[in-house]
Amino acid sequence: MKKKYEPTATDKAIGKTISTIFFLWIIGSIAVLCLWKKFRYKVWFEFFAALFLGFFGVQKFREKKIGLGVLYILTAGCFYIGWLIDVMRYLVAAIRNRPILPVEAAVTSKQELITFNDISELPAVQPLGLILQGSEVCHFSENASYVEIKNVVVGRRTNGGGRSARIFGVRVSAGSSYSQSVRDNIAIKTPGTFSITNQRVVFSGMKGAFNKKLSDITALTGYDDGIGFQFNDKHFVIQMENALLAQSVLNLLLSAGQN
Fold first, then answer.
1. Burial of residue 201 (number of CB atoms within 10 Å: 0-12, 13-18, 19+)
2. Which ranges in 54-177 belong to alpha helices (H)?
3. What's the rounded Cα separation, in Å, for the pair 222 and 240?
């Protein structure tokens, strides 16, 4: 007669651990889906979305990498290895407060209702990827770009005073000539997020990032599509869609600080 298998204490502990992990994964996934609309552009939410839904390639679809997203669905996050790498990437990005995702469409619904002419008092908006401190209030937050102007070589120009003639179908040149580099100023843009609070101005991106108190601003330059910030000897130009709104918010904050 075959003896009936009875699970050992170790088997029961392993089974209980797996059940607990599965239960927590279900709860976490439901929480991410429920909070998706409100917090989907926050860096810590991006981490938890990758942690709980990364097996299905959610982060790859959000990064516009559709092919990899489909591959993740078919291979359970490339056999968990790709998922684990993505989780670590998003964890590091969250700790550094530097979003990984493309920044095209992350505009808060509150801010869409505000125009430059409406500014008579400071608005309160939900910050994008920024953790507020204590009594801090965010008055402006949207996707932006750090603009860096570089003088680079864009081509070459040949100058000379010699003569040329065609002999048997071949052009022959005589005399001296020289090649000269053609340079031009090129704007290099680094995407990120820009926020203004009642205490500081913050730009988060792979380049040009800064986190400064309002009192650290030594000069401001307004453009139709951006703002130039001067912090002592450092200068930053941030390009954004609602630049006039941001300038108006800064003017109100700086005026209130001087009074």
1. buried
2. 58-62, 66-79, 81-96, 109-112
3. 12
Note the pLDDT tens digit of each residue in 84-112: 999 998 888 888 766 676 543 333 333 33
Residue 118's φ and ψ, nearest 5 degrees, are: -85, -10
- The Cα–Cα gap between 186 and 151 comes to 6
> What does the block give as tokens for 145?
């770009």
pTM score, whole prediction = 0.47
Quote the CA–CA distance of 200 and 7 in Å, as a whole number: 60
Amino acid at 67: G
- The string of pLDDT tens digits covering residues 133-146 is 888 999 999 999 99
User: What is d(CA 73, CA 120) in angstroms, rounded to the nearest whole number?
Assistant: 50
Q: Could you give the 3-state DSSP secondary structure of residue 153?
A: strand
Task: Determine how many CB atoms are found less than 10 A away from the CB of residue 128.
Answer: 24
- Which residues are registered as beta bridge partners of 183? 153
